[in-house]
Design brief:
Elements lengths: L6 E5 L4 H12 L3 E6 L2 H13 L4 E5 L5 H14 L5 E4 L14 H29 L2 E6 L3 H4 L5 H21 L4 E6 L7 H4 L5 H7 L8 H11 L22
Helix pairs in contact: 1-2, 1-9, 3-4, 4-6
Length: 246
């Protein structure tokens, strides 16, 4: 599924799922703009892309702040070209009983996980509208589908991403732009390894008896941004090893 000639922005592309998506889309032929707060991690990703013969740049900044988004987009357009693929992957997580979640913690979760994708999408849309073609993939979470204790603010923010996806898909469908979301299940990432959960116990309780890999999510994203998925929009493509069945 060739993406030759396309330019893709992947937020949070410095590690984990974002890195795997960046590498996969570069392999598919797209030029990649890797956005991340961590300059070293972003550089590692573009070095890996370069080793595979791909083209990429790193944009360091906050994907939930309008000024940083605009600056990164201007650089991306100048060095790679107009953006017609956007993967809203950057996010944060948290574990906290509901009665201990502060207003600041709630607002931060919503700003990064929900406001960020809104701002990135809004800023990127002019290029897609001009091209009459675009692909937007939002990374949500299976926690928004199943619920998850001590993750009320996180699940709510990711549930918002799913609703955002559906509404935006309806609005943009006549314009040649598709919008879909992927809620990962239990995926082996630095964020997961730092969470206060028993990884081995969770693996044992899962239908497939294995942990998901970032590459599993990247493969789904590769499909959703391709020409093969041109008639697919507003969908939730669950990649979770059977954790949640629709």
């Amino acid at each position: 599924m060739s993406l030759k000639g396309k330019v893709a922005v992947v937020t949070g592309g410095g590690s984990g799922i974002g890195r795997a998506i960046s590498l996969q889309l570069a392999k598919d032929g797209a030029a990649i703009s890797v956005w991340d707060l961590d300059a070293d991690k972003a550089q590692e990703t573009i070095d890996l892309i370069a080793q595979g013969g791909g083209q990429a740049i790193a944009c360091v900044g906050d994907a939930s702040a309008a000024a940083g988004i605009q600056s990164a987009l201007e650089r991306t357009r100048a060095e790679l070209g107009p953006v017609t693929i956007l993967v809203n992957n950057a996010g944060t997580t948290g574990f906290c009983p509901i009665q201990d979640i502060t207003e600041d913690a709630w607002d931060r979760m919503m700003r990064i996980n929900l406001k960020g994708p809104f701002l990135c999408t809004q800023a990127s849309l002019p290029d897609m509208l001009a091209a009459g073609w675009g692909r937007i993939v939002n990374i949500s979470s299976s926690s928004a589908q199943t619920g998850s204790p001590r993750m009320t603010h996180y699940a709510a923010s990711k549930g918002g991403v799913i609703g955002f996806t559906k509404a935006l898909a309806m609005e943009l469908a006549p314009l040649g732009i598709t919008v879909n979301n992927i809620p990962p299940g239990f995926v082996d990432t630095p964020m997961l390894r730092g969470a206060p959960i028993n990884v081995e116990t969770t693996i044992a309780a899962s239908p497939m008896k294995r942990i998901g890999l970032p590459e599993d999510i990247a493969a789904a994203c590769s499909y959703l941004v391709s020409e093969a998925a041109g008639y697919v929009t507003g969908q939730t493509l669950s990649v979770n090893g059977g954790r949640y069945l629709v």
